Amino acid sequence: MDMGQNVAPVLEEHRDKVLELGKLVEGEIVAAGDVGTKTDDLFLLRFLLSAKMDVGNAAEDVRKCLEWRKENIEQLRHVKENGTLPGGELFMKYQVVGYAGELGELKHPVFIVRVGLCNTKGLLKAVEHKQIVNMMLYNSEISFQICDQRTRESGKMVKMVNVIDMYNMSLFQADRRFAKCVGESSHVSQFVYPQLLGKAVMINVPTALRYMIKFVNKLQSKKTVEKQVICPAQKTHKLDASTCPFISDFKAAPTLPDFLGGTNTTYANTLLPMEERESTKHIQLDSRSSRKFSLILAKGETLPPLCEIEIEKGSIFVSAKFQDQVLIDQKLITSSESLVTLQLKCDFATGGTLVVECFNETKSKVPFKITLDTCEFAPREE
């Protein structure tokens, strides 16, 4: 079904097929209960369209979809309620991805992957294969919830547009293990999220990398590959993307970020290069209050994380804990000490969450700056 096409006429045209499919999977739908989305006629139509109106194949995919959604229902509820990846902090630490821009009046959402800026090898060392696949699928759930809601509100099919920005990408960044993660998530998405992907647009593609794309495509589902297009636009971080026919057709430049040749300069922190992401927070702590700051550390961390505090006026107490181990207990820091670097001594190699808590026990507000970040990632032992 095309992006922006009216749903009602298509649903009416295939009413008999929808009813037939509904009867075939009625028992499974009732047994599954809450699966995080409506399981109505629109839900069934998506499967029929992707199965080219083969009711038997559509029924098989519906059953697999219900089973997967039931197994992952807690994570899917988190996505629906919060619009974020459940437990995705560590995953996002290595990825330069995010939503930015919308296409046309129906606001087809645009999800961008800045492949050349992602730390794929670091991700593979820090996160297990299955978890990477799950994070990709949970991200598709975010896209599905957005598109499904807009489809129901407009009566027209709203689909996801993935933009793969390959600027600064080299062959040395390619990794077969990550390609397998992409391939596996693609095959699961085929039966969990039918009719979700509108287009996958590759932009800033170096000629030398086109053979690598062919390799990755062999691992992905056929339907995903069929929706791929390679945009002729190059160097969009310096030039506008007027040479991209897809962007021009939708008049999308005002909503797309500047590094894709658009005019939008405000977008998610997760789309910034790793070195440009803000790790310093400016805080004003109210009287007799506290704030917690957390940092997820990957397994294999060998250097202690960096924690610096600078008090502009007044004083605060600071505590730090890694997992269940107390590292600092009620340390007093005052404005007279200038910049203070906390000495965090612990075996961080096991991986886990570092929590730093700041307390203001005075009657006045205390403005301060805190920097909490990792110093360096070392490969974990295989």
TrEMBL record:
Residues 87-268 form the CRAL-TRIO domain. It comes from the Eukaryota. InterPro entries: CRAL-TRIO_dom (IPR001251), CRAL-TRIO_dom_sf (IPR036865), CRAL/TRIO_N_dom_sf (IPR036273), SEC14/CRAL-TRIO_domain (IPR051064). SUPFAM superfamilies: CRAL/TRIO domain, CRAL/TRIO N-terminal domain. One of its GO terms (cellular component) is cytoplasm. PROSITE patterns: CRAL_TRIO. This is CRAL-TRIO domain-containing protein. It comes from Mucochytrium quahogii.
